[in-house]
Design goal:
The chain has about 180 residues and is α+β, with helices and mostly antiparallel strands. It contains three helices and nine strands. The strands form two sheets. Strands 3, 4, 6, 8 and 9 form a five-stranded antiparallel β-sheet that branches. The longest helix has about 35 residues, at about 5-40. The radius of gyration is 28 Å and the shape is rod-shaped.
């Protein structure tokens, strides 16, 4: 003779199994959503070096640009600039003048520099010109544009809204810190 479980006990065990499964699924779903939220505000800064020698402009130019290709804003924590491995003091005014003096290029028609103070926020999809030179002489431009690329180094540290830290750099393998 086979004994069967009382109906109340069977229902209680079934209810507990369903409750434990529901809690497990809720925890898993919460973890997945947290990962999704982190990714939805993750910045990703890239640097590019662009040259413009189009015939439509009188001056040719070479520039470093930072692009935020991520989904969220990047909050700048720090930045450092180097010419030929020597750190440039950017705490004082006329920073672009100091870079020009250190580079000692001829036939420069001007420069463009964007200050990136600590705490600056670069929104998703935005870009920022870090430093650029305009040359009044195309021959000088062709001779010196890659020297700018090779001699200027920088590192920019930034974080996401969740406080996760990242960095973007150019030529930092040449710098001994």
């Amino acid at each position: 003779m086979k004994k069967s479980l009382p109906v109340e006990l069977s229902l209680s065990i079934s209810a507990m199994i369903i409750a434990i499964a529901s809690i497990t699924i809720s925890i898993w779903e919460g973890s997945t959503m947290r990962k999704h939220y982190h990714l939805s505000v993750m910045p990703h800064l890239n640097n590019t070096f662009t040259v413009d020698d189009s015939s439509s402009t009188k001056n040719a130019s070479a520039s470093f640009i930072i692009n935020n290709n991520g989904l969220g804003p990047a909050v700048i924590l720090s930045r450092e600039y180097f010419i030929d491995g020597n750190k440039i003091d950017d705490s004082k005014n006329h920073f672009s003048v100091k870079i020009l003096e250190a580079l000692n290029f001829d036939n420069t028609a001007g420069s463009r520099f964007s200050s990136i103070p600590k705490g600056t926020t670069i929104s998703a999809g935005d870009n920022l010109k870090v430093f650029g030179l305009y040359f009044s002489n195309r021959e000088s431009f062709y001779r010196q544009r890659m020297k700018l690329h090779d001699r200027l180094s920088f590192i920019i540290k930034y974080e996401s809204l969740y406080g996760e830290q990242y960095e973007v750099s150019h030529n930092m393998d040449k710098i001994k810190r």
